[in-house]
């Protein structure tokens, strides 16, 4: 039995499903999850000592690669001074100022410990600010696991949303309306029907949780305009795409300014840190200034802030995002070429340092397009690549992530493995 298998069997006894977050269990692709022992640069090694090129990067945070010396040094520098104080620190001001500089729509920002906390808090704030209850989200976007966000569309536009998880009260889901991504017509219908009840619209401007789906400019502009017209708060959930599709995030890429922004992943450099921020008048509603309660024992944790600050400094190196975008586009092209050579219907796309792989002829626009693409083919491709030492996300519904350590040799090695994998699929 492999050591991975041994560990999985042992984990199943003490941890539900053997994992601390469901997708890690390989449920949708099948097989044994790899237990990771260590990582460096673009690689990690599993419990059997096998090396993989890592295209997950901890689902986004590891944009400068694993165990970057500058991040390690920053963390080591603060470790000896204590891990958590529950009192303010100068480093928290520094990271807030750095975030404001990089994302100018953020006038004030509050640190939290996970993306879920960031979106949950931003929604409560938007509701407190507008004194409205209804929120709008889009099918296929994931915003963490707060109750009001684990909701799918009802049978029609004007029907209530339904929970996607047991344990979410129907009463909570009723306040969430779920619309189709990139569908301006449906958005207009919703705003015409109940625009003045909407507290907030939350969106992943570049969606990475239904594979990679790019928001169209027309769609994101329509969101901005409708929210302004109806006094709703526009929340960009940039937990995944922030600092990754461009230094200033998707809002810089599209030139569209949200009212609030949620950040996570890169902002903690692999440590538990996230944030939400935006317009000063809205942020003024948060406790202790205003009536909206929000708090956290470990919020602004000094070790997490040190890792985050070091990462934010590294991504400001001249040309960082241009090169990251080039390498990611190179990967997408190499994969698409490899599939074409083998005669497999497939395309890959990228935005900055994120990419998507689709067993379909064209890049998708919405969740239903992803559902229609071939999951069994993806699963077979995933396992061929895993065997060859290339670790993609273990689900056809996730985006991929490239780091600044994925150099030409790494991309070439991936392309080499992909040619063999696609050839095997074509047999
Ligand atoms: N928002 C987006 C866009 C995400 O991709 C995620 C996680 O993948 C979250 C929120 C939730 O973040 P966390 O897993 O840190 O709670």
Automatic annotation (TrEMBL):
It is found in: Cytoplasm. The keyword Translocase does not apply. The modification N6-(pyridoxal phosphate)lysine is found at residue 265. It comes from the Bacteria. Its main location: cytoplasm. Pathway: Porphyrin-containing compound metabolism; protoporphyrin-IX biosynthesis; 5-aminolevulinate from L-glutamyl-tRNA(Glu): step 2/2. It is an enzyme of class 5 (isomerase). Keywords: Cytoplasm, Isomerase, Porphyrin biosynthesis, Pyridoxal phosphate. InterPro entries: 4pyrrol_synth_GluAld_NH2Trfase, Aminotrans_3, Aminotrans_3_PPA_site, PyrdxlP-dep_Trfase, PyrdxlP-dep_Trfase_major, PyrdxlP-dep_Trfase_small. The keyword ATP-binding does not apply. Its cofactor is pyridoxal 5'-phosphate. GO terms for molecular function: glutamate-1-semialdehyde 2,1-aminomutase activity. It holds the Pfam family Aminotran_3. Its EC number is 5.4.3.8. It catalyses: (S)-4-amino-5-oxopentanoate = 5-aminolevulinate. Belongs to the class-III pyridoxal-phosphate-dependent aminotransferase family. HemL subfamily. Homodimer. This is Glutamate-1-semialdehyde 2,1-aminomutase. The gene is hemL.
